[in-house]
Design a protein that fits this description.
Elements: H1 17-27, E1 33-37, H2 43-52, E2 55-60, H3 63-72, E3 76-78, E4 93-99, H4 108-118, E5 119-127, H5 132-139, H6 164-173, E6 176-185, E7 188-189, H7 194-197, E8 200-207
Parallel strand pairs: 1-2, 1-4, 2-3, 4-5
Antiparallel strand pairs: 5-8, 6-7, 6-8
Length: 208
């Protein structure tokens, strides 16, 4: 939701949204101060307000998303995440969330760095490009199209597709600590070969 076209955000979660929300709520403390980046229609933030009594802001670029947030009672800022998070001070949030927006960002490395500057922790979720149906489609010579990646190659807003293994390396090379990691398919945890059989990855991270 952070580009001119509309990538996935928490509002368009394709794989059992309640499971996604439940996992994130389980990683967030009661009364936590939250910054939800690419918050879409505010459904995730609204869920966290109900379950965890969180406070804070959503950040969304689309007018439709901003209006939907306001209707839900979510305090929202209309911003383009590509401009960074310089308006927020260090450690001003308990947790910064980037739900299924990672793959649409141009300056992802800088954004994750900023998330861990303004937040004591960060939660990042993204569709796993290594999911085996995607691999099969590539083996047939086609770019993958699925419930978690529904766009065609010519109209996709996704510019940084990655696998669970890719993100593990990304975090390790930057010495970020992984507090929790869950990979799911159809709303159920995947323990065996998550980079192959996992459809969606959820990470809770912080600085070392």
């Amino acid at each position: 939701m952070m580009t001119a076209t509309e990538p996935f955000t928490s509002s368009s979660f394709p794989v059992n949204p309640r499971k996604d929300f439940e996992v994130i709520a389980g990683w967030v403390s009661d009364n936590a101060r939250i910054l939800d980046l690419g918050c879409g229609d505010g459904s995730l933030f609204s869920y966290l307000k109900e379950k965890r009594r969180v406070t804070g802001y959503g950040v969304e670029i689309s007018i439709a998303g901003v209006k939907a947030c306001i209707e839900r009672g979510v305090t929202v800022l209309q911003r383009d995440l590509e401009g960074g998070l310089s308006d927020f001070t260090d450690a001003s949030f308990d947790c910064v969330i980037l739900s299924q927006t990672l793959q649409s960002m141009h300056r992802l490395e800088a954004l994750v760095e900023s998330m861990l500057r303004v937040g004591r922790e960060a939660i990042v979720t993204f569709p796993n490009f290594g999911y085996f149906p995607h691999r099969l489609q590539i083996a047939k010579g086609r770019m993958p199209v699925s419930k978690s990646l529904p766009y065609e190659w010519f109209n996709t807003p996704n510019i940084h597709l990655c696998t669970v293994a890719d993100f593990d390396v990304f975090l390790r090379e930057r010495h970020y600590a992984v507090l929790d990691r869950l990979v799911v398919a159809r709303g159920k945890p995947v323990r065996f070969l998550p980079n192959v059989f996992g459809q969606l990855a959820l990470y809770r991270i912080k600085r070392n």
